[in-house]
Amino acid sequence: MSLFNRSKRLNLALQGGGAHGAFTWGVLDRLLEDETIELGWVSGTSAGAVNAVAMASGLAVGGGRAAGRAEARATLRRVWDAVESAGVPDLARLNPFLYGLTKNSGMAQMGSLLSPYDFNPLGFDPLRKLLEGNLDFARIRAEKAGGMELLIAATDVGTGRARLFRRAELTVDAVLASACLPQIHHAMELDGRAYWDGGFSANPDIVTLATESPAVDTLIVQLASLDRQTVPRTPRDIAGQVSTITFNQPLLRDIEMIVAAQEEKVGHGGFLGIGRGGGRLARLGRHRFHLIDAGRHTSSLSAESKATPERTMLAQLFRAGRTETARWLERHRGDIGKRQTVDLRQRYLERGRDRLAAPDTQEGADEDEPTPAGNNI
């Protein structure tokens, strides 16, 4: 029997977050270990895109069911071992001044001093060498195992809109575009267009995933904290929170559309002219969402830690991802294919308001939230 022809089929939506993506590595490692979970489409941005293509490469190269999963896990480990071995970006190591910035103030502040077109005129990107050395993009494009599609998001610099690179057109340049922070790297140029990090426009795209994938359950792997408990006051903390807000906005926008569809606020033709039948918004309203949240593990980490993949942090986040996934499977394996397990409105759109009303609410207390009405399908 094919790996993807059984009932527990699950799409994956993988958020970006730099080195914090090691948490997602742990999530994928645990899911791949469990052969009762079948993988549908995967939407990924930035670090989420790197995780997605690493998994897809391993599955394609490994071929068979068990062999493919084992190779996918091994490929993910090789990629993250290479990320850790690189430490700070190689382009900084070539320049003592830039290396000092990474050690003292973080790569994120470099853009306020110099343009990457000044400090890296040749556009050197160590991630290219890492990806090309560990992933087989030709096999990724050629082998669409069991119907797995990839949606890798990058942001068009000219329009600010997302472009989704699908499996058949996926190249190393597309992944680099998805992970292209403009403060550090030259814009990636593909087909005459320039691209920056996909997190500016889709982090990740879950609307396309939900409306086009034949699987009707999607697991969101959330890396960024949604509700900071203290007001940032230092320049570093302010810059970090600005970045967090910026990269969470595309996901919140998608969630607003999904909640509206689920609550049938656009029913009977609606403002998009889509009724209750088989239209895009109707499919969106019927889709079931699930969540594994890294917030309790990443909220205490500095913004700079996203760009400094230290061994201890990566190992801790990997273990945390595996642990949270094991807990989620124990609670909700039986819900896949039956009911949604996260209240999107409460979790994303009303977060913070409930804290003001009930200050004793603990982080993560919504893990066993009641299923929203209308999603027990």
Structure report:
This protein is 44% helix and 12% strand. It is an alpha/beta fold and 377 residues long. α1 (22-33) links the parallel β1 and β2. α1 packs antiparallel against α3 and α11 crosses α12. The longest helix has 28 residues, at 235-262. The chain starts with 8 loop residues before the first strand and ends in a 20-residue tail after the last helix.
The rounded Rg comes to 20 Å
Q: Main β-sheet, in a few words? A: 8 strands, mixed
Averaged pLDDT, please?
Answer: 82
Order of helices and strands, N to C? EHEHHHHHHHEEHEEHEHHEHHHH
What structural class do you assign from the helix and strand content? alpha/beta
Descriptors for this entry?
single chain; about 375 residues; alpha/beta
Task: State the gist of this model.
This protein has 16 helices and eight strands. By secondary structure, the chain is α/β, with parallel strands linked by helices. Strands 1, 2, 3, 4, 5, 6, 7 and 8 form an eight-stranded mixed sheet that branches.
Write the layout of secondary structure elements.
Layout: E1 9-14, H1 22-33, E2 38-45, H2 47-62, H3 65-86, H4 90-93, H5 96-104, H6 116-119, H7 126-134, H8 137-142, E3 150-156, E4 162-166, H9 172-178, E5 188-190, E6 193-197, H10 207-212, E7 217-222, H11 235-262, H12 280-286, E8 288-293, H13 295-298, H14 311-332, H15 344-349, H16 353-357
Parallel strand pairs: 1-2, 1-7, 2-3, 7-8
Antiparallel strand pairs: 3-4, 3-6, 5-6
Helix pairs in contact: 1-3, 1-14, 2-3, 3-7, 11-12
